[in-house]
Amino acid sequence: xxxxxxxxxxxxxxxxxxxxxxxxxxxxxxxxxxxxxxxxxxxxxxxxxxxxxxxxxxxxxxxxxxxxxxxxxxxxxxxxxxxxxxxxxxxxxxxxxxxxxxxxxxxxxxxxxxxxxxxxxxxxxxxxxxxxxxxxxxxxxxxxxxxxxxxxxxxxxxxxxxxxxxxxxxxxxxxxxxxxxxxxxxxxxxxxxxxxxxxxxxxxxxxxxxxxxxxxxxxxxxxxxxxxxxxxxxxxxxxxxxxxxxxxxxxxxxxxxxxxxxxxxxxxxxxxxxxxxxxxxxxxxxxxxxxxxxxxxxxxxxxxxxxxxxxxxxxxxxxxxxxxxxxxxxxxxxxxxxxxxxxxxxxxxxxxxxxxxxxxxxxxxxxxxxxxxxxxxxxxx
Amino acid sequence: xxxxxxxxxxxxxxxxxxxxxxxxxxxxxxxxxxxxxxxxxxxxxxxxxxxxxxxxxxxxxxxxxxxxxxxxxxxxxxxxxxxxxxxxxxxxxxxxxxxxxxxxxxxxxxxxxxxxxxxxxxxxxxxxxxxxxxxxxxxxxxxxxxxxxxxxxxxxxxxxxxxxxxxxxxxxxxxxxxxxxxxxxxxxxxxxxxxxxxxxxxxxxxxxxxxxxxxxxxxxxxxxxxxxxxxxxxxxxxxxxxxxxxxxxxxxxxxxxxxxxxxxxxxxxxxxxxxxxxxxxxxxxxxxxxxxxxxxxxxxxxxxxxxxxxxxxxxxxxxxxxxxxxxxxxxxxxxxxxxxxxxxxxxxxxxxxxxxxxx
Lengths: 381, 359
Description:
The complex is a heterodimer.
Chain A: E1 3-4, H1 15-26, H2 37-57, E2 64-67, H3 70-84, E3 90-94, H4 99-110, E4 114-118, H5 128-134, E5 138-142, H6 154-163, E6 167-171, H7 183-186, E7 190-194, E8 205-209, H8 224-227, H9 235-250, H10 252-273, E9 278-279, E10 291-295, H11 301-310, E11 313-314, H12 330-334, H13 339-343, E12 345-349, H14 356-380
Parallel strand pairs in A: 1-11, 3-4, 3-5, 5-6, 6-7
Antiparallel strand pairs in A: 2-8, 7-8, 9-10, 10-12
Chain B: E1 5-9, H1 14-25, E2 29-36, H2 41-47, H3 54-67, E3 71-75, H4 77-93, H5 100-119, E4 124-126, E5 131-136, E6 139-144, H6 161-165, E7 167-168, H7 176-185, H8 207-214, E8 223-227, E9 232-236, E10 259-264, E11 269-273, E12 279-289, E13 299-304, E14 312-318, E15 324-333, E16 340-345, E17 348-358
Parallel strand pairs in B: 1-2, 1-4, 2-3, 4-7, 8-11
Antiparallel strand pairs in B: 5-6, 8-9, 10-11, 12-15, 12-17, 13-14, 13-16, 14-15, 16-17
Helix pairs in contact in B: 1-3, 1-7, 4-5, 4-8
């Protein structure tokens, strides 16, 4: 039986999203910027999606900038903000941020801006004092860490940044199925969302830009998306994104409880299946309920992922940012792990279609892999 | 149900692709693995080539998809650096001419890869090497490939009996043409991909340049080129720029054709001489290992002193410290320290070692 446990990389398409994508495709082509009936039909669909997303976030529709995904939204947030003002000098974010934050921040640093990597504690959380000390013009922080699921105390961090006059960007790509992501709740000026992480098609995402936030476009050549993202919109993918986000938000409270119960079952199962396993987060650390990250002493996470794959279970070592790369997780390194321990990480992540049967199958597969690895390391010894 | 699980090292080339296909046809449960050996595949692509380039990973993935087998990329960057490419540089700086392919086989494909294959439940590892392994009279015999022009048994001499027992070379009885024909028949997208002949991590073949970019500065120093009479003919920037048997780039410029006959890294001296000075009566091999399972008795063998070298008749003599002397029946040209000396009897690889010095 095939089990999908890599929702944090990409969630399976929700039926409502699939229907919206197909409906948008079947309704016919048309460029939303065109001044004819076909264009108007496409425009109507695009704007309906924009309203749907805006409603979830409690913002005005024109505060939504659709992008090609969360990575683009993160790049736009950082580079667009920096490009808008030469006075912007200091960018700060936890050392555990996703590569789509760290990499553009480092590019900006190489071009003369300052990027301060905020230290985190052993759970991966930073604090307001670190933000204050960094004196940022822009604070960028993920609400939910994509590798461990840990929650940053975004409200406190944002308040500390704002007190110093900073603009606040929150990467909420992993969050909408479980947490409120309204900018007003988060205290954010900019919020990143992903379609594929919430059960929409890949290739869509959004950057919420609160009114009054200065942000320059990175792609030029058209006035789409309020002049902040040139290029013909991917209407069908955006329609699917909006539908998926709406369902995720509507089911949020129930799903949070359901996934938390699955997580409890999964943690207990893994603890029994893999003696010596170390859970990256203790059960009482504030975290989104869909991710269980562990380290498996003495093995390489990559090998466990491959072995699980051969057992029909899709899991991950960490963030799937670089195909084939097996660098130790920068998230775990920032949390104080050694490189060897960080290389032994395994991340399972569940979501809207996961069941307790899936959890049991994951645990059974892990037990088989453990038995085999124990045997093969005995033979090698 | 499928047969035993086997991990196939897939480079993205036609040989390992067809090896995977043949095993799948034979009913094995085939898992493809590509080894990432360079930390910056993007740089390799920018440079245009190299066996660890993204293009090759992509080819391997496409072949795996075509064959409907799982495929993984394993990052062996650290092991490759410490056990192959650093050794490659260090050997050149010692005045020797290394053979990194042997190291890569011994330390990566048949060590790291095999151990990790075990974690996937695979007892067997396969590669696209042209060589054969057969079991006879209670032991495993490593044999030359049927296709003499493609035979790669030279690169495999360091395999142990235990490793041979768990290794498959599906191409051992094929010719290159048959492999390409098979690839075309299977619709593999790499059927006509050109051969990768050179050392994969130095695609431009500028070994000296590679060493100067990768070895710590100060690990090479200038020296002189002398003839056998001790006459200084030229100066040079480092012994890593020379290999025994080299004729070009000696920097002498008097119109006389000479070859490098010996390199003394301690004094930084490169000796040159006429062709007759290249003729050696034998060699001393060190770190000798015996694929056949036990040391070959002293006596007649054939010895190959570099890849594509036609093995020559020689008599083995066991010396102190596990060293082995091979005395050629007829003088052989350009015995090169650092290269492997591989001992054959008939088609079988008895074992081999690293050439320490010429006799």
